[in-house]
Design goal:
Layout: H1 2-40, H2 43-64, H3 71-110, H4 122-131, H5 134-146, H6 149-161, H7 168-189, H8 196-217, H9 225-255, E1 261-267, E2 272-278, E3 287-292, E4 295-299, H10 303-317, E5 323-328, H11 333-339, E6 345-350, H12 353-360, H13 368-378, E7 387-391, H14 394-403, E8 408-414, H15 421-424, H16 429-438, E9 439-448, H17 456-468, E10 473-481, E11 485-493, H18 499-504, H19 518-523, H20 547-559, H21 564-569
Parallel strand pairs: 5-6, 5-8, 6-7, 8-9
Antiparallel strand pairs: 1-2, 2-3, 3-4, 9-11, 10-11
């Protein structure tokens, strides 16, 4: 009877352990995919590639587990290895990428090379590209060792029972699937709110705990007991250090990827925020750059160009400015320009509540010097009493506006580029058609539309998609924003005269701007010869098609040199 109770206890221990480790394995997949997506900037394909690679590696690990002679000993070593890789992988990846990025600068300074002779090509370029693939290598390693867990636990169960168990694999896989589901829930509900290095350390701690429990329970079946205990204790200290200091180290390594000094970095539930500062010397104001997931969102040196083109043509050509809707624009810069037109009410919808809070009251979150610069930039626009802030997914939030039969004189869509599948839906016919219903009969809508030079097909597709949503007149315009290069916008009217015709009927801007003029705006509607000659072959972005996301990602990869053959064969004037 005593032996039966002990066997039942051991069996329960093994099944619970399997469930916990399955959750850990899934979290490691998410951690590596999440971080790799930030580094590579192609979140969707990165996640799919990482999960696919880890599944293949898990299969190889399951085969390799047959070579382990002592399942008890092998399992303890296995959890030690997984815990070590799990807590250190992201730090090592960050370090390798940072090293590859600063190496050309170090070599240039060491050998006193001029700026135009910076060693960025050849072997150094290959090294840089290789380091950006390291998340996949660690995914393969972790997947391989994680794949060994199920076969080893299955063997341990049979050794304890001293017979072949008919439903052994079914029980183990059942625990594995349930544990993976719980792990996914923990990731979404808890770990996403933590710094990525802290999430990795907590997950690794569970693997280490599993090893400790096995050492304690199956002590007689193990060799090198003192060595195993010592290594577990040492790794426990390492995991604690990573939990406490890993994020700081990771930020310092990530900061090396920016040309300017990083003055503030933080992570919200949805994205990584980074502020950099460039000191120009003399009496010139410092340049503040703001990045989301490593991509520049604005530079204080020229953001006025971008935001003036986003706001002024639309409001200048609109009949009224009483009620304005802004989609995105959580930094308050577009809102700042809208408020100059004396609207009665402005509704601003942005998904990230934490980002809104930072730009609304920067003195609460940012260093004093940076906070004062942000306040000077957005002029406390988010605190204006006429502004209604909605922190929600715009795709869903506009349904509430439709239900309340709210109408707007102008709609300004200031969203990030469609660099993620979740953003693609906000560039779809479905989304624009619903925005059209919110627009007054003589109102206008404008959409930031990425670069007509670097992402030409995505730019044209946005225009075609807006047209397919039922707008009467759809036109596009462009100009150079130094920090971004050539940039474009799409403007549309629901009925009546076209936006360009309305602007041409004006003699001057109703609200003066310190830089932008009416002739500049009307000239911006002109494009190079044959710019639209291939328009009919560029697809429209319907909901679920991911057309604009794919066009944008292809263009972005080409510009980053990830598809050199494509660039060589598709050079545009």
């Amino acid at each position: 009877m005593l032996k039966k109770k002990q066997l039942l206890f051991d069996d329960s221990l093994l099944i619970i352990t399997m469930a916990v480790l399955a959750g850990c394995g899934l979290i490691y997949e998410y951690l590596l995919s999440h971080y790799a997506g930030r580094v590579l900037g192609v979140m969707e394909s990165t996640i799919y590639t990482m999960i696919g690679l880890m599944i293949v590696a898990m299969g190889l690990g399951a085969f390799a587990a047959r070579k382990v002679s002592n399942a008890f000993q092998g399992f303890v070593w296995l959890e030690l290895i997984i815990a070590f890789l799990g807590c250190s992988a992201i730090l090592v990846i960050g370090g390798l990428i940072a090293f590859s990025q600063i190496l050309p600068q170090v070599l240039a300074e060491t050998f006193a090379l001029p700026p135009d002779a910076m060693p960025n090509g050849g072997l150094l370029k290959s090294l840089s590209q290789l380091t950006f693939k390291t998340p996949y290598f660690f995914g393969l390693f972790l997947g391989f060792f994680i794949g060994m867990e199920i076969p080893l636990i299955a063997r341990i169960r049979e050794e304890l029972h001293q017979k072949h168990l008919k439903n052994n694999l079914g029980t183990i896989y059942g625990a594995d699937y349930i544990g993976a589901g719980i792990g996914a829930a923990i990731w979404v509900l808890f770990l996403l709110s933590l710094d990525i290095s802290q999430a990795a350390a907590l997950t690794a701690a569970l693997n280490l705990l599993a090893g400790f429990i096995f050492i304690a329970r199956f002590w007689p079946s193990l060799k090198w007991k003192k060595t195993l205990v010592s290594l577990h204790l040492l790794l426990g200290i390492v995991i604690a250090i990573v939990f406490l200091h890993g994020n700081n180290w990771l930020n310092q390594m990530s900061n090396l990827l920016y040309l300017d000094k990083v003055v503030y970095s933080d992570k919200t539930r949805y994205q990584q925020l980074t502020f950099t500062q460039r000191h120009l010397g003399g009496k010139q104001a410092d340049i503040i750059n703001f990045y989301l997931n490593g991509r520049l969102q604005f530079s204080s040196g020229d953001e006025a160009i971008y935001h003036s083109y986003l706001v002024y043509p639309t409001l200048a050509a609109s009949a009224r400015h009483n009620n304005i809707l802004i989609i995105g624009g959580g930094d308050g810069l577009a809102l700042r320009d809208v408020l100059k037109w004396s609207p009665k009410q402005v509704t601003l919808i942005d998904l990230d509540e934490e980002l809104l809070a930072i730009f609304k009251t920067p003195q609460k979150y940012l260093p004093d010097n940076l906070a004062s610069k942000i306040i000077k930039l957005n002029q406390k626009s988010l605190q204006d009493s006429r502004v209604n802030l909605i922190s929600y997914d715009a795709f869903i939030a506009i349904d509430n506006l439709l239900a309340n039969k709210t109408y707007f004189d102008a709609i300004i869509v200031d969203l990030p580029d469609p660099s993620h599948p979740d953003l693609n839906k906000l560039y779809s016919v479905n989304f624009y058609a619903r925005l059209k219903q919110l627009l007054s009969g003589d109102g206008l809508m404008v959409v930031q539309s990425t670069s007509p030079y670097h992402a030409k097909q995505a730019f044209i597709s946005i225009g075609k998609t807006v047209k397919a949503a039922g707008f009467n007149h759809v036109e596009q315009y462009h100009d150079n924003v130094p920090s971004f290069g050539e940039w474009g916008w799409t403007i549309a009217s629901k009925m009546g005269a076209s936006p360009k015709q309305r602007l041409q009927n004006l003699t001057q801007l109703p609200v003066a701007h310190h830089w932008l003029t009416l002739p500049l705006i009307t000239a911006a509607f002109n494009f190079p010869k044959n710019f639209y000659e291939n328009e009919k072959n560029i697809p429209i972005n319907y909901l679920g098609s991911h057309t604009i996301y794919q066009l944008h990602q292809q263009a972005w990869q080409n510009q980053q040199g990830l598809d050199d053959a494509y660039i060589e064969n598709n050079i545009e004037p």
